[in-house]
Amino acid sequence: MGTRVRASRFSLCLLALVASLVALTLTEGVRAAESNIYSNSAVNARLVSAENGVAPDAVSISLGLVLEYGEGWKGYWRTPGEVGLAPEIDWTGSSNLASAEILWPAPERFEAFGIENFGYSGEVVLPIRVMLEDRGEPLELRARVALLTCSNVCVPHTFDLALDLANGTGIDRASANAIATFVFQVPAAPEESDIEIDTVALDAKTSSLFVTAQSTQPFQTVDIFPEFGPLVTFGKPDIRLSPDRSELWARIPLNAWSDDYVAPLMTVTDADRAVTAPVVLSADIPAPPYARSASGSGPFQLVLIAAVAFLGGLILNVMPCVLPVLSIKLASVLKVSDQPRRVIRNGFLFSALGVLTFVWMLAVLILVLKWIGVSVGWGIQFQNPIFVALMFIVVAAFAANLFGLFEIALPVGIQDRLGAGSDRAGYAADFGTGLLAAILATPCSAPFLGTAITFALAGNAVDVLVVFTALGIGLASPYVLIAARPALIERIPRPGRWMLFVRMLLGVLLLATAAWLLFVLVGVAGWRATVLVAVSVGVLILLAMTEWSSVSLRRILMAASLAIPLVGVGLFSSQQRSEASTGTTYWQAFVPQDIARHVSEGHTVFVDVTADWCLTCKANKTLVLDRDSVADRLSDEAVIAMQADWTRPDDEIARFLERHGRYGIPFNIVFGPEAPSGIALPEVLSQTLVLEALNRASTRNVVRD
Amino acid sequence: MDSKKRSTLLTLGAIVAGYAALRTVPSLLPEKLELEPLENPTGFRKYVAGDTSGGFDLFVGLDTPEGAEIVARKEAAFERVSDNICGALYGDLETSAARVPMASFSDYYCPYCRVQTKRLAEMTNSMPNEVAVAWHELPLLGDSSNLAAKAALAAKRQGAYVSFHERLMKTPFQASPEYLSRLAGDLGVDEDQLVSDMESAEVVRELENSSALARVFSFVGTPALVIGRTVVQGQISDRMLREIIDLEREDGWDSACMSA
Question: CB–CB of A42 and B56 under 8 A?
Fold first, then answer.
């Protein structure tokens, strides 16, 4: 491995070198001091000296190894990365040379075929600080340079460079400038840099290195290079910056770890500055606080993501999660079929606005939650028992209304606000329909949606608003379509007896939705709270159906039957989640930290993140995971099937999702010897997809020759 | 409204099409299969890639100046392989006119070599009747690369060459007894055998042969690959690789071996 240079010595050398270069630039040079040139298509190399001769009393000389890499060729840093080789110089045969130290300019990161390498391309000068044995005496340099260059083939080079410096003064301005340029690119010592590395922590659980740093001057294009000796290698870092770009958080996955690591160095590079600091590993793992810096969302990317969000919203309309909503949409279509076009158009526009309003509310809520530091996800409102109870009340009331149990608007007006029950053809009702449709659409993720939400949640406020708006427009597009073409409505037959049947059918669908919400509530809040909510809603509907002499008493009772379940759910929610019998026994509890161990033992691990409120998850389970071909594979001894139940809030699951770039469920991922970092599956599964991923993760493509 | 909808659709379609084009077009651009006959050794030819492998004086390694004895051994190896190039390249692979042999030369410290080893292993797995691979180590990058090569060849003697290389990706190579012991355990190979093979005369001779072959073919670096009678230096796409294999089968790859 290359010459290891201790960070603390950097600063001294740097200062001395810069000082002598600045001094030297003041006097005019006479004759260039350069070695012979080694040259081929991969690299041109020569030694240059800032000084044309050894001045009387000189104790040191500033050299540079000039490397001009050919087009497409790369060379390596002192730590080359996973593979590759650092340049080495053997000075045997030189005279009057006490020591020579290479100062390594900050490297670039190269990625090829999933292998991370650090090095240089184009032209680089490796500044070399030479100390003389006898001050003021002539210097003869004999350098045997060994270096590796790679393009699509790796070519090693060994060559000899010779440079003699007689007594004399004067400098070679061109060489001095070239060396100085690269001296300024050598990372500074910690005490001289405005970048401060705060913590470096090793987390065995996620097998990653966590780094935090801060800077008085905002970070621009940051990269981070850990050096733990040849036995430890790292993957590509996930680097995030705080909104004002003064703080940095990074997670660097470990590719290979050894407890015999050498004293670690950490180099942080930024536009035109860098720091290298010796570090001590700490046990405190810093939480990921900021948005991804790499995304640095350009306007084009944002537009692209907005298009993706729109598609996601559009597809969400046909996901199983939205099935209950279809009935509400149909009901509203029927309601308006005999009205003038203008009213129809406005009504549907208001519904679309309702959808958008909910989406905006969600965006604002997410921003607030993010701001106070709560981890957020798509559909997590269904983890809140009060929300589920409220949804149940609204849907149950709506169903009762469709069945014709009561026709009058509720005194407290929840129908006017949230549903479309009122006979007054108010736009408020249309608005409420859209709102309710959007709310019920959120428990599940859909293809494309995950990508967009992930981007938004990792981005800033503008990203969140743009993405959510696009998503809302996608979700509302069926309404917008009808608003644009009200004539479509006129294709529906005139109202008649058939409408009664459709109303009943829709009522049944909504009743099913209510039953599902009740089921979710059992999962979220327990049996007692669920019974309380169901009974209260029953009472509420009875009250609404019957005629009362005392209007005020009725109002009080109805308000009470509304308030009791909501308060009750909060109070009676049982903390324990009853173990759901999954029917099949091969599902194990979700223990993320065991995944790596299982994989190292040669097992394949299938993780299914699900929740009671996620209908797409249920569909996946019934149509794919429980089918024989997949179930056989999952119950196989070589496969460990883990189920994570996200019905209730769970930080561990939320973190697991976030680590894999998802914020919503369904989420399924397969780990195995061939895929230690996991193969994430799309939201909607198919048997082939699952089996293929299992095969891909487990097959060892090993030829025994 | 119609025109608005149409333009929305068009925009969306354009985005999707643009993305698809970006993803697929580069791989559709025709790569030219350009072959150039080699003057020496006769009968072989070279795949002319984007050409980065030209312009180097001689085949070099990162080795130290060598004594007369080593030079003599190298010369002997050079004579040996020159007399029977195909034998040295492909050893005792079972080949036929339809089963094209390949000789892969790699170095532990060379990034692309890993990819090539894996790719060739997958290829022999998926088409065992069409291709066969002889694994060579060409440690050009100093002492550790030399030791890793010896360990790889020792593992090869117990049928674990590819798994050895895959294993090295998870923990970097170390020349310590503890590391080799752990490695042997993980690979399910005999540890004592592995250690003694590493220093055996056969492994040394094999390295000498591979190095002499590199001289015969004027390899400038790693990875290098000889497919039948076609020499490939550096990275090559899977498609190109398959095309050369097909060509070798059609052309009769063994003509070079007969003339030699």
Answer: yes
Tell me whether A72 touches chain B (CB under 8 Å): yes
B 185-224: CB under 8 A from A: 220-224
Task: Please name the residue that has the structure tokens 């999952």.
Answer: A634
Residue of B56, B102, B108, B112 to mutate when probing chain A, most A C-beta within 10 A = B112
The nearest CA of chain A is from the CA of B21 a distance in Å of 15
Just give the CATH number of A587-698.
3.40.30.10
Length of chain A: 705
Backbone torsion region of residue B218, taken as left when φ is above 0, otherwise alpha when ψ lies between -120 and 50, otherwise beta: left
Distance from CA of A187 to the nearest CA of B (A): 26
Per-residue pLDDT reduced to its tens digit, A408-417: 343 344 444 4
CA distance A484 to chain B (A): 7
Strands B100-106 and B131-137: parallel
SS3 A563: helix
Q: What is the pTM of this model?
A: 0.56
Q: Is B26 on the interface with A (CB under 8 A)?
A: no
> ipTM more than 0.90?
no
**Pair B17, B4 in one domain:** yes
Distance CA B87, CA B257 (A): 8
Test A83 with B234 for CB contact under 8 angstroms.
Answer: no
Residues B153 and B205 in one domain: yes
Show the 3-state SS of A568-622: HHHHHCCCCCCCCCCCCCCEEECCHHHHHHHHHCCCEEEEEEECCCCHHHHHHHH
Give the per-residue pLDDT at A108. Answer: 92
Looking at residue A167, the DSSP 8-state letter turns out to be B
What gap in Å lies between CA A102 and CA A186, rounded to an integer? 10
Residues A200-236 have pLDDT tens digits of: 998 877 788 999 999 988 888 889 999 998 888 888 8
Kindly list the residues from chain B whose CB atom is less than 8 angstroms away from the CB atom of residue A311: 12
pLDDT tens digits, residue range A146-204? 999 988 888 888 899 999 999 988 888 899 999 999 999 999 999 999 999 988 998 87
The residue whose two tokens read 């810069």 is A18
Number of domains forming the structure of chain B: 2
From-to residues of CATH 2.60.40.1250 in chain A = 7-183
Same domain, residue pair B22 and B44:
no
Q: Do A702 and B170 touch (CB under 8 A)?
A: no
Judgement on whether residues B18 and B48 belong to the same structural domain of the protein: no
CATH architecture of structural domain A190-292: Sandwich (2.60)
What 3-state DSSP class applies to A654?
helix
Q: Which domain CATH number covers B121? A: 3.40.30.10
Summarised one tens digit per residue, pLDDT across range A677-705 is 788 888 888 888 899 888 888 764 433 33
* Count of Cβ atoms closer than 10 Å to residue A502 Cβ: 16
Shared domain for B45 and B25, answered yes or no, is no
Q: Which DSSP string corresponds to A245-292? A: S-EEEEEEEEEE--TT--S-EEEEEETTEEEEEE---BS------SEE
CATH of domain A7-183: 2.60.40.1250
Is residue A61 exposed (0-12), middle (13-18) or buried (19+ Cβ within 10 Å)?
buried
Contact call for B142 and A84, based on CB within 8 A: no
Same domain? B24 vs B112 = no
Flag whether residue A538 sits within 8 Å of chain B, measured between CB atoms.
no
The stretches of A90-247 forming alpha helices (DSSP H) are 173-183
- Whether B75 and B17 share a structural domain: no
Residue B125 to residue A701, Cβ atoms within 8 A: yes
Q: Are residues B26 and B37 in the same domain?
A: no
Which residue range(s) make up the domain with B15? 1-30
